[in-house]
Design goal:
54 residues
């Protein structure tokens, strides 16, 4: 997990003020969703591979 650059102490998030805490939660949610979708795609791919191989 390389989430260190996204911390609110950086120069880009300092100017935003109130919006600073939002990205961490959004990033966490996105990574969870991506991980679930990735697992689903991987299981489907493995299943297809098993079915197609004699």
């Amino acid at each position: 997990m390389s989430l260190s650059p996204a911390r609110p102490n950086g120069p880009t998030t300092a100017g935003r003020g109130r919006e600073a805490p939002a990205p961490s939660g959004a990033v966490g949610l996105m990574s969870q969703t991506i991980r679930r979708g990735h697992d689903r795609v991987m299981s489907q791919t493995i299943q297809l591979h098993r079915e197609s191989t004699p």
